Amino acid sequence: MSASLADDRLAQATQLQLTWWRFCRHKLALVSLFIVAAFYLVAIFADFLAIADPHATDARRSYIPPQGIHLFDTNGFAPHVSGMAGKRDLKTFKLVYVPDPARVLPVTLFAHGYSYNLLGFIPTDIHLIGLATPQPIDGIFLLGTDQLGRDLFSRLIVATRVSLSIGLVGVGMSLVLGILLGGVSGLYGGLVDTLIQRVIEVVRSIPTIPLWMGLAAALPNTWSVTQVYFAITLIISLVSWPELARVVRGRFLALREEDFVIAAELSGAGQFRIILRHMLPSFTSHIIAATSLALPAMIVSETSLSFLGLGLRPPAISWGILLQDAQNVQVLAGAPWLLITAIPVSLVILSFNFLGDGLRDAADPYG
Amino acid sequence: MLIYIGRRLVIAMVTCVAISMLTFVIIRLPPGDFVDAYIANLAASGSSVSADQAEAMRHEYGLDRPVYVQYGLWMNRVVNGDFGVSMMWRRPVTEVIGDRLWLTMAVSFAALFLTWMIALPIGIYSAVRQYSIGDYVATMLGFIGLSIPNFLLALILMYTGFRYFGLSIGGLFSAEYAQAPWSAAKAWDLAKHLPLPACVLALAGTAQLIRIMRANLLDELRKPYVVTARAKGLTESRTVLKYPVRAALNPFASSIAYLFPYLVSGSIIVSLVLGLPTVGPLLLQALVAQDMYLAGTIVLLLGIMTVVGTLVSDLLLMWIEPRLRLTGRS
Questions:
Q1: ipTM value
Q2: Nearest residue, CB atoms, B283 vs list A213, A296, A353
Q3: Structure confidence by residue, pLDDT tens digits, A143-182
Q4: Phi and psi angles of residue B34, each rounded to the nearest 5 degrees, phi first
């Protein structure tokens, strides 16, 4: 009885439901979906989550090590952090910061901090957490500070927005190129197909990083942060469209022979209508899967370029720019927390890979 | 078969020409030329160059001619083995690059070799013992390899080595061999330094290859001929290794075609982190200083070497895969 019920459910399910059920069977992909979603939420509400102004420098708090928030004091629940006191290390003569338990700085939720526009249009200065009474030098340094005394946690949060959005914009661009060229290639075949396939072969056999470096180094120094951002996105997407074009072409070739396409042709549907109405819906899922597999590559590309100093330039903040500070082993030995950016980078890439894997399996729920 | 080889050769040639054009475009892109950069450099240090002198320099380097003429002149000399003079170092480009190009290739090939050496046995093991603990460990390691960009891995290794073992990992030679002429001892020194950068580079590719190998072999193992082989009483190792592994190797070989460009470009950035004497750091310097002949030559040579590497892998594939030889004939 129950078996036939399940069969009924299966028989009546729409393609979207089938895809979703298949996707849910890939547990890692499901978890990854939530992680990716969480990252994008952080990106959207970056300023709200940031504690300190990510651009605010202060020489008096350079290289402060990460500190935790103490939830309780002797009287019960009272979240606070300790003030930091600078001390000379008598061996290396470097200034090191140690927490000073005597100075208790209370922490509250929805504290007032630097002003920003929530979602881009609501001016506010409320942040998720902050000191109850803002101090000029003291702060909450969950992940420590960099050489210029900027709060690493806030910078990391804001960098997430730049790094994740550059991936999306880049994928958008290469999607347009890929669908256009792949579609033309698969639809018309013949000489056009051969030509586009050769172009793809050529693009794929060029080592990407030297090429990117060349293109990125050619951007004028005078360009604004936004101009550089779009230029870098364009450069990255230039190299990643072949993979998408390959997927689209493959689907076109496979679908061209399908009965329903021939039926549509015979009933007099125009070519444009056949593509948009009949073919496209049956391979959107494949495109989505290919896209989610292309995203991590984009994010790595941006990170690598900015890491080399050829990508985004300060004052822009991205993961690559944060890692640039960690290039030097001597600096790292003194301030290992600068390497923390590696964790979100790896986590996002891993999640996107699992997500793409799951989507690829789910793209063809009848298989 | 000859047609197939011929087609590959033509594609490789076209790719090389495309790379040379792209290279030239890249070099021509920045506003201003080397002379501008040179003058700015001099101005920063206090001396100045007159307009006449600047013009003379432009003429000397051919910068006052139309772009396609410059490209033609450049290509003409490149074909004759003259890559021009590095404006930054004031020495012939070939001399500046020196051993660096070969060292880049050595690192990339070592990484490729390592990728195969690791991925092949692990891939076979993962497929034969599907869902065993070893399979899960391999899959996990594979995903970690996939998720950590190789320059980050290099950074983490450098830090760990420095912090916990007091070692400075990096470089390709010990201090005493860095400037020494080539000898057996220097080559041995290189061989001792190669594994670490090769490992760092190989990790991501290995992860991919393990997955490909595992999937391919799993497909093969389910085919009836394997059952027949078992039924005939072949030993397990022979059943697996004799035919299924060989059949599963084909896509394995074809994956070099895109693995190799990937490794070469990875080696650039890893070299920068690990301070390897490859073309990576040189390319970055040249690009920043807009030293067009040097940067152009590096990008061009890297591209061409990659194409040659890909071509070799294609021919190798043809040797392994008889079906390709046959389809090439028709």
A1: 0.74
A2: A213
A3: 777 777 788 888 888 888 888 888 888 888 888 888 888 8
A4: -60, -40
